[in-house]
């Protein structure tokens, strides 16, 4: 079951979005687990790692939606973040937290349904996309959306996921061929990085959401910045 959180300090907006989701689920003949929060502090106390989609109000007391999204990204890089706001001016700030969409208030049911459908399509793709990895003794399936980066280390290819490090008996070139179509970029001869896991780009490094620092080669920097900009821009209306 898809788990969705709504965080807004306006109880009327909470009720409206919950009703929209109820109507959407009824129309699509599906079940959704919807949880409501009136502030970001309550949301951060919840099990964020197991939420698939979050609707965030941008302007809230105590902690605003942008800062809240930054903290969410520290523990969940896959969750679909959709900002709900009165102002489009916050869109640029959403790039750094890989927001999926901005919904401008007042929101109508038709627009809402289109956005949720696109978000669910991406969620289902992420949850069902796997990479077949040949290890020393067996071939295993690794969910692509859990991979942060791949690196060559002392002649071996290592796949780094959210929870483990897997030695892969394949070549970086073969893995790159598959993962390039899933939002990965070869930022260095020794590194293949998931664009969705990127937190920020420094002079010669890429910092991931989990704090890992990846080398960015000079001759690939320009192309990486263009690909990353396209990746972020493609997530906005």
From TrEMBL:
UniProt entry tagged with the keyword Phosphoprotein:
yes
For this UniProt record, give its keywords in alphabetical order, as a comma-separated list. Answer: Phosphoprotein
Per UniProt, residues of the HTH LytTR-type domain are: 131-230
Return any one Pfam family short name: LytTR
Q: Which domain of life is it from?
A: Bacteria
Looking up InterPro entries in the UniProt record yields: CheY-like_superfamily (IPR011006), LytR-like (IPR046947), LytTR_DNA-bd_dom (IPR007492), Sig_transdc_resp-reg_receiver (IPR001789)
An annotated Gene Ontology molecular function: DNA binding
Response regulatory domain span = 3-120
List modified residues, type 4-aspartylphosphate.
57
Return the protein name: LytTR family two component transcriptional regulator
Q: Which organism is it from?
A: Dielma fastidiosa
